[in-house]
Amino acid sequence: MLLAQTLSTPPVDQITDELTKEVIRPIDQLLNHPLVVQAIEVSLGILIISLVIRFVSTSVSRYIHDGETRYRFRKTLSLLGYGFSLLYAISVLSNSLGQLTVILGATGAGIAFALQEVIASFAGWIALSFGQFYRPGDRVQLGGIVGDVIDISILRTTLMECGDWVKADLYNGRIVRVANSYVFKEPVYNYSGDFPFLWDEIKIPVAYGGDHHLARQILLAVAQEVAGKYIAGAEGKWKEMVHKYRIEDAQIEPMTTLVTTDNWIEFTLRYVVDFKLRRRTKDQLFTRILDEFTQTEGKVRFASATFHLVEAPTLKVALQPPLAEPAAPYSADKP
User: Fold this and answer.
1) Which residue has the higher pLDDT, 182 or 23?
2) Which residue, of 32, 94, 118, 144, has the greatest Cβ tally within 10 A?
3) How confident is the model at residue 2 (pLDDT cuts 50, 70, 90)?
4) What burial class does residue 257 get, using C-beta atoms within 10 Å of its C-beta: 0-12 exposed, 13-18 middle, 19+ buried?
5) What is the CATH architecture of 197-295?
6) What is the pLDDT of residues 127-161, one digit of tens each?
C-alpha cells in the first residue's frame, strides 16, 4: 500500500515546473498583450525624444549669448518635444484608440474631478500663450506675489519675488512658483506690459515763509534732470496705448501740485520712471532737491514737525507754620 502511494505521487521537479508555468504564464500573457507592448514602445520613444531634445538644447544654448533668445529657443525646443511625443504616441496607439476612448470615457469624470487644478492650470497656460497676460521678463503681481516672470511652464509660472521684507521693488532672493490657474481666479497686475513705465510721486514739505515759486521751479528742474531721460520713450509707448485702447492722452512731462497744511507747504512731484528703477530714481531726486534747497541760502527750506515745550509758571505756596502737637489724652492715673 505504501509503495503504491509512493509511486502515484508526482516528482518534485514536475511540481516545480507546474508552479513555474502558473506564475510565468500570466506574465507572458501580460507582456504579449498588444496594449502593453504599445505602451512600452511609446515610453521608449518618448524617452529617446526627450534625450535628443535635451542634447540639442544643451549643445546649442551655449552659443546663444542673448538671454531672451536663449530662453525662447529652449521653450520652443521643449514644445517641439511635447508635440513629437504626442504625435509618436498617436501613431503607435492608432490601432487601439477605440479601446482607449472607451476606457477614458468611463473614467473621465473621476479623472476630471481629481485633476481639476491641473486642468485649470493647463487652461491657464493656453490663455497665457494667446491672451497676452504677461510674458517672461514682465513684472507682475500674481496671486498676491510681486516679482519678475522668469519662466512659464505648462502648469506653473515662476517668479523672482520682489518686496516683502525688502523695501521698494528690489529682489529678496525667493523664487515663487504660482499655478497658472490664478489668471482665472484673481486680477493680474502687469507693471511692464504694453507700457513699461510707471508714474511715481514724492512729497516734499517746505517751510512757510520761503519762496514757494522758487521751490516749484527747483522741483520741476530736478525732475527734468533726473527723470527726463524716460520722457521720450514713455511718450512713444503712450501714443501706442492711445491708438490701441480707448484711453485718454495723459501728461508724461513732470508736474507739481501744492497744498497747504497746518505745519508746512506740501509739494507733490509726479514723474514717469522705468518700472525697475523706482527706488534709484527716488534717491537721485531727493539728493538733488536737498542740494538745490541748500544752495538757496534759506529762501527754500525743508519743513519738519517741531514741538515747542512751554514752561509752566512756578506755583508759589505760602509756608504754613507747623501745626501744634495734639494734647495728650486725659488719664485718671496722672495728677
Assistant:
1) 182
2) 118
3) very low
4) exposed
5) 2-Layer Sandwich (3.30)
6) 888 878 888 889 999 878 899 999 888 888 999 99
Q: Say which residues have a Cβ less than 8 Å from residue 156's Cβ, sequence separation at least 6.
A: 121, 177, 178, 179, 180
**Full 3-state SS string of 115-137:** CHHHHHHHHHHHHHHHHCCCCCC
164's CB contacts (< 8 A; 6+ apart) are 172, 174
Q: What percent of the chain has pLDDT over 90?
A: 27
Alpha carbon distance 64, 79 (integer Å)? 19
Strand order in the sheet with 139-142: 171-179, 156-162, 145-152, 139-142, 189-190
CB atoms within 10 A of CB 316: 6
Tell me: pLDDT of 271 over 90: yes
Tens digits of residue pLDDT in 40-51: 777 888 888 888
CATH code matching the domain that covers 125-190, chosen among 2.30.30.60, 1.10.290.10, 1.10.3720.10, 3.40.50.150: 2.30.30.60
Q: What's the grid cell of residue 80?
A: 517641439
Which helix (H) or strand (E) segment holds residue 143: the answer is: none
As a whole number of angstroms, the distance between CA 176 and CA 309 comes to 52
Provide the residue ranges of all domains of the chain, joining segments of one domain with +: 10-107, 125-190, 197-295
Read off the pLDDT of residues 159-170 as tens digits, 9 standing for 90 and up: 999 888 887 778
Q: How far apart are CA 120 and CA 232, in angstroms?
A: 41
